[in-house]
Description:
By secondary structure, the protein is α/β, with parallel strands linked by helices. The chain has one domain: Rossmann fold (3-Layer(aba) Sandwich). The protein has five helices and seven strands. Strands 2-1-3-4-5 form a five-stranded parallel beta sheet, sandwiched between helices. A two-stranded antiparallel ribbon has the order 6-7. Helix 1 (19-33) links the parallel strand 1 and strand 2. The chain is globular. The two termini are 24 Å apart.
Amino acid sequence: MAAKPTALVVVAHHRADSLTAHIGGVAAARLEKAGYAVDLLDLRAEGFDPRMTVADQPDWNDRDKVYSPEVQSHMDRILAAELIVPVFPVYWNSAPALLKGWIDRVWNYGFAYGRSKPRLAGKRMLWLGLAGAVQDDDFAPWMKETLDRVLREGVSFYNGITEASLEVLYDVEGEPQYVDAEGNFTKGEALTGQARLSHYEALDRQAAEYVAKLVSA
């Protein structure tokens, strides 16, 4: 019997009870349903340190540098995966330090980039961000475009992964947030009761749909 293809789900949040962790579980369940063996990489739970180290600093004169055992193990997990799904909260229109440091240390020179034939070519990715902003806020398209350029183009495409997408789940706090043309911030009343339950059920469905789209691509 042929082995199942592997999907790597990377959860980047500092709390185990976060919505990010929950959505990571939703993504993992959808991938398992599609026939994938899921490697769930919870960066917080595994104690990953996002700060660069001397051992993992790129050596521009040696693309075959041997990195630290921790980073090498993460590289191996990326290589083993056909699909990669980082799930993360959106902080300041970017990825949180935990995910950014994982990219800095693990997606390193000689491994992810720096070769005429990219080692990661042929893999597929879905970057799945969770934002407090509402989707109809004028600011939301700019935020998504910024994330798309930095993560899908700047990381995935730069490292040879041409089949990648960036999606955002909006209003994840259940408290509508808006910024007007003058930069004034407004936060609406929190959802309660059945309205709150329905809101988060809809986020689960949306996350699962994004993953299903990745699988079917």
